[in-house]
């Protein structure tokens, strides 16, 4: 009997050592999984940062070209405005002269047919000495 209890004790100790080895193997496996997960997260973060950097560079390149485009548009607008103001200044004297000639040569003649009492001539570039009257009827 003593040999049986000793055999049982050996079996129990062997079972205990096997359970400890299994537990240790599970711990090693958990540590390896945790380490692999951390390495994967670090790799993902590094990849994300690299892609973010590339995106920022492309965005700066695109916005930089748009900034140049807006600068060019502003310069063209300024140039066109200056040309318009210059044209306005050059044409101002001609317009005033034409306006004064038109006002001084604007004939007002009464109409005797009874349906109109005022006639006016529409000012044009070519003044006609006998323009058709414009009647206002009431």
TrEMBL record:
Keywords (A to Z) from UniProt: Coiled coil, Hydrogen ion transport, Ion transport, Membrane, Transport
Subcellular location: Endomembrane system
Family: Belongs to the V-ATPase G subunit family.
Physiological role: Subunit of the V1 complex of vacuolar(H+)-ATPase (V-ATPase), a multisubunit enzyme composed of a peripheral complex (V1) that hydrolyzes ATP and a membrane integral complex (V0) that translocates protons. V-ATPase is responsible for acidifying and maintaining the pH of intracellular compartments and in some cell types, is targeted to the plasma membrane, where it is responsible for acidifying the extracellular environment.
Keyword Ion transport: yes
Coiled coil: 8-57
GO biological process: synaptic vesicle lumen acidification
Protein name: V-type proton ATPase subunit G
Superkingdom assignment: Eukaryota
Gene Ontology cellular component annotations, sorted alphabetically: synaptic vesicle membrane; vacuolar proton-transporting V-type ATPase, V1 domain
An MF annotation (GO) of this entry: proton-transporting ATPase activity, rotational mechanism
Cross-referenced InterPro entries: V-ATPase_G
One family name in Pfam for this protein: V-ATPase_G
Quaternary organization: V-ATPase is a heteromultimeric enzyme made up of two complexes: the ATP-hydrolytic V1 complex and the proton translocation V0 complex.
Entry keyword annotation includes Nucleotidyltransferase: no
Organism from which the protein derives: Crotalus adamanteus
């Amino acid at each position: 009997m003593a040999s049986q209890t000793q055999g049982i004790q050996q079996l129990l100790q062997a079972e205990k050592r096997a359970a400890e080895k299994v537990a240790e193997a599970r711990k090693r496996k958990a540590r390896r999984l945790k380490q692999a997960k951390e390495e994967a997260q670090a790799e993902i973060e590094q990849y994300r940062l690299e892609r973010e950097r590339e995106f920022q560079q492309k965005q700066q390149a695109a916005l930089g070209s748009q900034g140049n485009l807006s600068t060019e548009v502003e310069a063209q607008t300024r140039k066109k405005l200056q040309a318009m103001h210059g044209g306005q200044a050059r044409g101002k004297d001609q317009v005033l002269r034409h306006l004064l000639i038109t006002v001084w040569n604007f004939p007002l003649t009464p109409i005797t047919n009874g349906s109109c009492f005022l006639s006016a001539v529409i000012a044009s570039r070519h003044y006609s000495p006998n323009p058709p009257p414009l009647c206002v009827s009431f």
